[in-house]
Backbone:
DNA sequence: CGTCTATTTGAGTTAGCTCAACCGTCGTGG
DNA sequence: CCACGACGGTTGAGCTAACTCAAATAGACG
C-alpha cells in the first residue's frame, strides 16, 4: 500500500519545479556543472543558494559524530535541494554522478516569492508534498524489513527513471551500495545480499552492479508490500 | 550531536503557531474538545480542517495493510496537524489524552494566505523547519540503537514539557508504550526493557508508567549520542 | 602488471524480535 | 464488598534478521 518511498522529498508531482523559478531564471540564477563526488554544500554552511538538479543525481545526508550516516534523499533532475528554514543548511549535499545544476541565490529567490503569492502557494504545496513523502519514508525506515526496503527502493527508481524495453524495465543505479545502505538504514552487505537474492529469484537482472533490469515487476511489488 | 528528534515536525521554534492564525481566529475557527482516543481524522479523508493543539497531545500515524503502524508525530500544545498538499489527509490523527483544539476551515485558511504574503512566508518557514526536524528523525529511525532512540525521545520531551524540581526534571508520558514503540520503530517489550534499564542505572525514575523523572540528564545525553 | 576500491560471499554474533507468562490497576457485575 | 475479566505494562526465554568481521572477486587505473 505505502510502497512509494521518495527518492527525494522535493519531487512532488503537483508542482513542476522547472516552472518554479522560470521567470527568474535569466537574472537570478546560473547553470553550473560538477563531477561525481563534488560537494555542493555542508551542514552548517550559510544557506546562500538553492539548487535545482538538471542532469545527474545528488545526495543529501547527515552524519553523526561517530561516523554513522543517514542519506536523506537522492535528488534527480527536476528536484530541488538546499532549501532551509533559517540561514544554514541542515544536511550535506554531494554529487553522486556528474551533474548539471541551476544555482539560485537565495536572497533573490526570497525577494521574489514575497512579491509573488502564486509562487509562494506553489512552494507551499511543494513543501507539504515533501513532508508527505517523508512520512512514507518513515514507514520504510521504521517498520519495513530489508527485502521490503530494497524492493520499495527499486520500485521508486523504476517509476522515476525506468526505461521500458521488451518485457523488462531498466535503470541505472548511480549511487554506491553504501549510499543505498545509508538511505535505507541497512548495511552494504545486506544490500548486496538482498540484490543477489532478487536476482536469483528472477525478479531482477544485474547486467553490472550499477544497472538494474526488473523482469518481474509484480513479484517486486509483492516483496515491497510484505516480505515473505 | 543530532540528539534532537522532534515530537512533532511542526513545532518549529522560529514560528509562533499561536500567532499564525491570530487575526483569523474569531471568524474562521472554533475551539473544540475531545476525549482520549477520539479520532480527529483518518488517512484519505477530505482535508477540510487544520487543527492547532491547545491542550493535551494528539498522535499522527500511518498503518500498513498488514497492521504495522508508524507513529509520525506527537503534537503538543502549539503544534499544528492536518496540513496537506492536496485535498486529502495523508495520515490518521487521534487524541492521545483529552485535548482542546482549535479547528480551522481549510478553505478559509487557504483564502487568507493567498492574500497575505507575510502569513505565507511564516508558513513556509514552518514547513521547511518541519522538514528539517523530520530529517533528524530519519537519523533516529535509520541509524540509532534502541537505547539511543529511547534516550533521545526522553530528552526531547524533557526539553519540551519538563518541569524542573530540585535536581530532577519530570514530565508526563501520556502515550502508551505501543505508541512510543511505533514512533521509534521498536516493540513495546524493547521500550519497556529499555526504560527499566535506564531506571536501574539511576538515569531516570518512573513514579508510575506514565511519568518520568530524569535524575541524570548528562547520563541520558551520553546514552542518546552513543549507546555504550 | 600491481594497486586500489567497490562489491560479493561466507561464517559467526547479537540486538531486538516473538512468544509466553505474569503482574497490577481498573471497571463491572453479582 | 469482592470476584472477575480486560487491558497495559513488565519480565523471561529463545529465535532470527540483520550485523560484524573476514576473505574472495572483479573492475578501474596508472
Residues:
Amino acid at each position: 500500500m505505502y510502497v512509494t518511498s521518495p527518492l527525494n522529498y522535493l519531487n512532488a508531482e503537483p508542482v513542476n519545479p522547472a516552472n518554479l523559478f522560470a521567470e527568474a531564471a535569466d537574472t537570478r540564477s546560473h547553470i553550473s556543472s560538477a563531477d561525481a563526488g563534488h560537494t555542493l554544500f555542508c551542514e552548517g554552511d550559510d544557506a546562500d543558494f538553492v539548487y535545482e538538479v538538471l542532469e545527474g543525481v545528488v545526495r543529501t545526508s547527515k552524519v553523526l559524530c561517530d561516523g554513522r550516516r543517514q542519506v536523506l534523499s537522492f535528488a534527480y533532475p527536476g528536484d530541488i535541494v538546499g532549501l532551509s528554514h533559517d540561514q544554514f543548511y541542515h544536511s550535506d549535499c554531494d554529487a553522486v554522478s556528474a551533474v548539471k545544476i541551476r544555482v539560485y541565490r537565495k536572497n533573490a529567490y526570497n525577494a521574489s516569492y514575497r512579491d509573488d503569492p502564486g509562487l509562494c502557494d506553489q512552494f507551499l504545496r511543494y513543501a507539504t508534498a515533501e513532508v508527505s513523502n517523508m512520512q512514507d519514508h518513515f514507514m520504510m525506515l521504521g517498520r519495513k524489513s530489508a527485502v521490503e526496503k530494497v524492493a520499495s527502493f527499486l520500485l521508486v527508481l523504476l517509476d522515476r527513471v525506468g526505461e521500458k524495453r521488451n518485457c523488462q524495465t531498466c535503470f541505472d543505479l548511480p549511487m554506491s551500495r553504501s549510499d543505498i545502505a545509508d538511505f535505507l538504514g541497512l548495511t552494504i552487505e545486506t544490500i548486496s545480499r538482498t540484490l543477489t537474492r532478487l536476482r536469483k529469484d528472477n525478479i531482477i537482472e544485474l547486467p553490472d552492479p550499477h544497472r538494474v533490469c526488473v523482469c518481474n515487476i509484480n513479484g517486486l511489488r509483492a516483496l515491497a508490500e510484505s516480505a515473505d
